[in-house]
Every structure is written in C-alpha cells, then in structure tokens.
From TrEMBL:
Keyword annotations of the record: Cell inner membrane, Cell membrane, Membrane
NCBIfam families: PRK04968.1
Entries under InterPro entries matching the protein: Syd, Syd_sf
Membrane topology type: Peripheral membrane protein
CDD domains: Syd
Source organism (scientific name): Cognaticolwellia beringensis
Name the record gives this protein: Protein Syd
Gene: syd
Function comment: Interacts with the SecY protein in vivo. May bind preferentially to an uncomplexed state of SecY, thus functioning either as a chelating agent for excess SecY in the cell or as a regulatory factor that negatively controls the translocase function.
C-alpha cells in the first residue's frame, strides 16, 4: 500500500479491517472481549459464550477532540495523534512489526475516550515533571516497561521505557508505522478453546 495515497485515518481503518478479516478467518466469528456491565461500546455486536462480547471496530460518528486537554495543559498535541485516537472506536488490536509485538490502543467508547484523555494528561504531566521530551503513547508492547509513542514535536514514532526519554526511533511518521504493521491473531479465542 502506497502511504501517500491514504490519510492516517484510512491507514488505521484499513489495518483494523485486516485484523478483523484475519481474526474471522482463524476463528469464524468476530473478535471477543470480556463483558463489562457498565462499560458498553458501540463496537459490541452480541454475546459469545455468556461472558464475552463479540465486537468489531467502528468509525467514530461524533466529534471527539482534545481541545480540553490542550487548553488545560497549554500544549498543542500533534495532529497525527489526534487523528489516530478519533478515527474509530475499538478494543486494542494486536500487531507485529520488525521491532516485535505490540497492541494498538483505542477508545472503546465516548466514555473510554474521556478516560484515555485523563491517561494522556497524566503522561504529559509526568513528562513535564521529569523535564523530558513530550511524547504521547498509542501502543503497548509485550514488555510491560516499554510503550510506543509519538514525538509530539516531530511526529516520529519511538520506543520508550516508561518514565524515561524515548530511546529508539522506529518510524518517521505514524502513517509510516501503521503501514508496516501486520495483524497478530492469538492462537486461541479464549483460554478454554
């Protein structure tokens, strides 16, 4: 896929659809997640084995913004991170790249988007307190101490250890990074499968 022909929103959406197809090919049903009674999502598409929701990513059809975060912290967030987190609602999507395995983070619902904003505020305050370069996380790795983040000034993508400055650049842009990912589907839908 030639990156220049697609917007970041398109790349994120295409990756989510590739993930969905690969998951359905392996398990012959939509992805599943544990049902949480007071954490409903427009992504949910029914019940699976009583304790799981079937789900799929959906495009956001309401206006989500980071205006409140930017005003409260007097900082301008990079447009790429704002586009990424407002493109769709989804559970996390597992992926692989040349650097290893990761999970892309998204908001599950508008309620979860508010929680995401609070987590980003906490991350920014930590970075400010530590006098570190401002980054915004958007993925976690299989190593609990490392996250994938976007450099707020340049838009480049980095690996960073939590609480530390980014230490390894892995893409020039978020679009470049998303375009190199492949879906990583679990070997089993649930532990008892």
């Amino acid at each position: 896929m030639k990156i220049s022909n697609y917007s970041l929103n398109d790349l994120v959406w295409h990756f989510s659809q590739d993930y969905l197809k690969a998951y359905q090919h392996r398990f012959e049903h939509l992805p599943i997640t544990h049902i949480v009674e007071d954490w409903a999502s427009p992504c949910e598409q029914g019940v699976y084995k009583e304790e799981f929701s079937l789900w799929h990513p959906i495009k956001v059809d309401e206006e989500l913004t980071f205006d409140n975060v930017e005003e409260a912290l007097e900082v301008k967030l990079h447009d790429d991170i704002k586009q990424y987190f407002t493109a769709m609602y989804s559970d996390s999507l597992d992926a692989s790249c040349s650097e290893g395995d990761l999970s892309l983070l998204f908001a599950w619902s508008s309620k979860d988007f508010s929680r995401l904003q609070e987590n980003i505020i906490g991350h920014i305050l930590m970075k400010t307190k530590l006098k570190q370069k401002l980054t915004i996380f958007f993925a976690i790795t299989d190593d609990d101490d490392h996250i994938i983040s976007l450099d707020n000034e340049t838009g480049s993508v980095w690996v960073e250890k939590v609480g530390c400055d980014p230490h390894k650049k892995i893409a020039d842009t978020l679009a470049d990074f998303i375009s190199q990912l492949t879906p990583r589907i679990p070997p089993k839908a649930i532990e008892n499968d």
